[in-house]
């Protein structure tokens, strides 16, 4: 049987360890060791991702941002989807059904709660500080940046919703601080898409 990896938020790692989960330092993931029953790990067991946004191609956006806590500069990551991505929305003709709607402008996603495993593997290769964590602001868990120096959460609100936030550039220079890594692979997440002028054309291609 293949090994079962667990989705353990950083804040719950001690509890997972106490229950018998083991840490894979190379792949940065907790897993169920051989011979240990999986049922005690219920809420961390993998489930099918709940996808509401999808694209056949995507960019991992990378920038440097000062940590609000320790002041050191730390890397921050996000996802940008080109024009042609789709979102699941209520169907006008059928109330019980959602339909995929195509968008003809690029977007940036935030408050991401689910990600396709292939996308998780890509972002994990960039940073072990991008992981699911609980936000007191939203009272929910989502894929969040963390300071690479002090480990503090770097919440999405400041980065995506506040003008001049790391992923809310207000001028060409700010946009040029963002580096885009292109992946011609399927993207899928559950999260919010932000539309508007993000100055995508001034962001740098890796
Ligand atoms: Zn810090």
Summarize this structure briefly.
The chain contains four helices and 15 strands. It has helices at 13-18, 117-126, 156-161, 172-176, and strands at residues 4-6, 22-24, 29-32, 53-55, 58-66, 73-81, 86-90, 98-102, 107-115, 131-135, 140-146, 153-154, 179-183, 187-194, 204-205.
In terms of topology, how is this protein built?
Layout: E1 4-6, H1 13-18, E2 22-24, E3 29-32, E4 53-55, E5 58-66, E6 73-81, E7 86-90, E8 98-102, E9 107-115, H2 117-126, E10 131-135, E11 140-146, E12 153-154, H3 156-161, H4 172-176, E13 179-183, E14 187-194, E15 204-205
The structure holds zinc ion.
InterPro entries: DUF5710
Pfam families: DUF5710 (PF18974)
Specify the helix fraction band. 10-25%
The shape is: globular
Bound molecules: zinc ion
Structural class, from secondary structure content? mainly beta
- Please count the beta strands (DSSP E, at least 2 residues each): 15
Report the mean per-residue pLDDT as an integer. 93
Q: Beta-sheet strand percentage?
A: 35-45%
Major β-sheet strand ordering: 8-7-4-14-9-6-5-13-15
- Write the H/E string, N to C: EHEEEEEEEEHEEEHHEEE
């Amino acid at each position: 049987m293949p090994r079962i990896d667990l989705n353990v938020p950083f804040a719950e790692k001690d509890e997972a360890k106490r229950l018998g989960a083991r840490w894979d330092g190379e792949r940065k993931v907790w897993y169920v060791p051989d011979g240990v029953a999986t049922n005690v790990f219920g809420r961390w067991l993998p489930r099918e991702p709940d996808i509401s946004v999808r694209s056949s191609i995507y960019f991992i956006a990378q920038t440097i941002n000062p940590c609000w806590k320790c002041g050191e500069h730390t890397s921050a990551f996000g996802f940008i989807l080109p024009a042609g991505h789709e979102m699941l929305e209520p169907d006008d003709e059928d109330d019980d059904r959602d339909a995929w709607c195509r968008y003809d402008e690029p977007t940036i996603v935030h408050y991401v709660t689910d990600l396709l495993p292939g996308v998780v593997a890509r972002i994990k290769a960039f940073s072990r500080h991008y992981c699911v964590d609980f936000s007191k602001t939203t009272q929910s868990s989502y894929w969040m940046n963390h300071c690479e120096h002090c480990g503090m959460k770097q919440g999405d609100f400041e980065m995506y919703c506040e003008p001049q936030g790391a992923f809310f550039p207000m001028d060409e220079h700010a946009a040029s601080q963002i580096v885009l890594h292109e992946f011609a692979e399927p993207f899928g997440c559950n999260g919010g898409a932000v539309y508007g002028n993000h100055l995508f054309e001034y962001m740098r291609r890796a």
